[in-house]
Amino acid sequence: MDASTRKTGLPLSTDELSSLQARVLTLEGELQACQQRAVALFNEAPAPYFLLDSQGRIVDVNVTGHGLLGRTREDVLRRSWISFLPSTSQSSFALLSTLAFEDALVHHGDVQVVNAQDTPIDILVQLRTQQRDGVEHLLVIATDISAHKRAQQTLLNDNANYEQQLREQARTTRHLMQDLENVTLTFIQQLHLPVARALNFFKLHRAAREKRAEAVEDNLMNMEGAVLQILNLLASVDRFMQLRQMRLTIKPVDLNKVLSEVLKNAEPIMADRDVRTTSRVLPTVQGDNRALFLIFDELIANALKFTRTRERAQVSVVTHETELEYHVGVRDNGVGFNMRHKDKLFQLFGRLHPSSEYEGTGVGLVTVRRTCERVGGRVWAEGKPDQGATFWVAWPKQPTLRL
Fold first, then answer.
1. pLDDT band at 168 (very low <50, low <70, confident <90, very high)
2. Which fold has domain 248-403?
3. Closest CA to 313 of 355, 267, 276
4. What is the chain's Cα-based Rg?
5. How many CB atoms sit inside 10 A of residue 187's CB?
6. According to the model, what pLDDT value does residue 82 have?
7. Architecture of domain 155-245
8. Residue 233 has pLDDT above 80, yes or no
């Protein structure tokens, strides 16, 4: 039965046939208009749209889509979608596309695409099947989430940095508490002897009051010496703690000027002595002027103290640099020391020579070490018995302030 025949078997009239043909033409026009609107929506969509065939080849792409890839439309069409994905994303996308074709549901996932500049771009993809020209295709709608990923990574990095800072602060706090405990315990130990001596001299003085005046005078002098030793310990610890708490300011410091001020400060110590001081041209470093003055003031004073038995004392300031540090050394021709005991030099109240011969409390070099460590620096010493010593400071070119 042809289209011009009724179900009753009677042929359609000319008017009925014309009306039916007109209706068909109208429906075809509406269908074509719908297809055109669908194509327009596809092409003008603000999100990147890619239409893939069953083999994964791109059969259509909108302006935003090939713009995301940094390529022209012609460069993208007929190419495999997978070819724009790094190897780390290809398997996950293949799984999503297989699921979308099998169950006709919408699937989402995170993948990366690589643009024309070989820059990976993080995208969120939405996959669903779509009919075009009677053939099932896969519609891929992409959302650029690179900014979100960067923000997320920045947040993760910030959190990691914050946690690292907390750990460093915790370590620093433990270190400071350990320092305080060490200072307290060592200070108490150092006080025992002078206090015991002072008490003993008081007892002797009491017993000698009725005896000769010379014995009384000797006891008074000994008591005074013991009390002065206690006061020196208190002053040394006080200076040490003040330096630990001193706020450092990093700025350019000319070490030549620092050394000049240190030598001027040491003039009273060098009076009536034959002292020869020499220095190479010193660098300008990034550091704190007060801290550097205290460091070199202590090292110069240390050199002068241990050369006073020499007929002519020689104190030289030498320097050289590495890629990351300036090394400045204070060298003398004094009594020197045995390298086996070098670590004791930088311990609190550490002494290699008897206090009866060389005054001091054993705090100065510890102060130098701790001050250097506050900017990431180092100190060490080299010497030989009766052949002098060199005390080195390694000062970083890019100092980092620490507690």
1. confident
2. Heat Shock Protein 90 (3.30.565)
3. 276
4. 44
5. 18
6. 94
7. Orthogonal Bundle (1.10)
8. no
